[in-house]
Batch of 2 targets.
Target 1
Amino acid sequence: MNPKAPLRVLVVDDTVVYRKIVSDVLSKIPGVEVVGTAHNGKAALVKIASLKPDLLTLDIEMPEMNGLEVLRHLQDKKMDVGAIMLSTLTQQGGAMTMRALELGAFDFIPKPQEGSMAENLIAVKASLSPMLQAYAKGRQFRKLLRGALSHSAKRLTPGGNLDKTTGTVVRRHSPAGFRRSKSEIIAIGISTGGPNALSQMLPRIPGDIGVPIVIVQHMPPVFTNSLAKSLDTKCKVTVKEACNGDPLQPNTAYIAPGGMHMKIMAGSDGKTRVIKTTQDPPENSCRPSADYLFRSVADHYVGRATAVIMTGMGTDGNEGLKQMKRSGALVIAQDKSTCIVFGMPKEPIESGTADVVASLDRIADEIIKSVRQP
């Protein structure tokens, strides 16, 4: 893909209105070319062959061949075509969206359910424009990375073999004289690419990890519940969507509900810790916000917490991580090569806030170490 070439997009939706809305939005985004439309998955596959798009905007629920079937075909044929899903705000839509992300979809946007054409255009553009920019940037980086790995694979390391499976970990020194305790809580901030990354990382956490895990995944309502249910079937720890007033329990991961902030507070006995969900104003245009969660963990777990920042657009979490770092937390950041979007981890890594920079397949090991040894 020529970095100066436009991003070629095929719009796939069984509804004429949404094909027009999405096409109109895309046509106004610099660096994007709408190469065609299709009314269902079968028609899309024919047009993919002839139009060679880089990306699909793909409705999930369509007659004849739905969006999931299209993704399976792309995966089976190893076709280098990305997909952004258009998903309905229903329990069924949420569950299908989680499956689409597992099948390799880049991300999703919820379909506007009401409002005028003009209002829907604004809503779709607000979600789609930054997502396309992130996709194009990430696509180019991954092509460069594949080229570099292909070149490296032809050479041997001094030890005689190229290690391509164990991932990478880079450690940094904590401030001189500072001593931290074993972590008693894990706090994770994640966004674009998150469901897939979490489905790879969380199952590596043992069921007897012994501490609670609190997670902010940027998502609208309904979808976080579907994500929690999906992860719970894969993980040794219990995974649930957090509820206001939940006491923090070990060996349980709590996902902030979509559209709500989540923070940690002291229980009525002053010893236990409980979850509080709020509708305080969005931070960094996000609700839930990782910054909002991280600040509360910094306040209640001084010197006894691990923060993890993973793939995602934007900078949410950066300021909260600084506060956690000042309060003695260990900060782990996902490395650039395994992020779908290297946004949220970028500043913590470049500024030195991150103590450990690890590839996706090594993050769980680093979390376990932080809980079992200071």
Target 2
Amino acid sequence: MLHEATDYPKFDYEKTVQEFLHWEHAKAENIMTFRDKPHTSAMTGCVAPVHHTPWMEALDDSMKCYL
């Protein structure tokens, strides 16, 4: 109901819930590696690419390295 009162683009609410649960289970499974898992956008349906370096090893936070 609140969403309909905004101009925010429509998205799949159920997919958002499923992605959150996937994230939550990955975090419970391994607190050190859950950030390395890809997720699907509820807006576009696109799966995010896996980062080139595991989170624990990614110490360079520059734009050049990240992108």
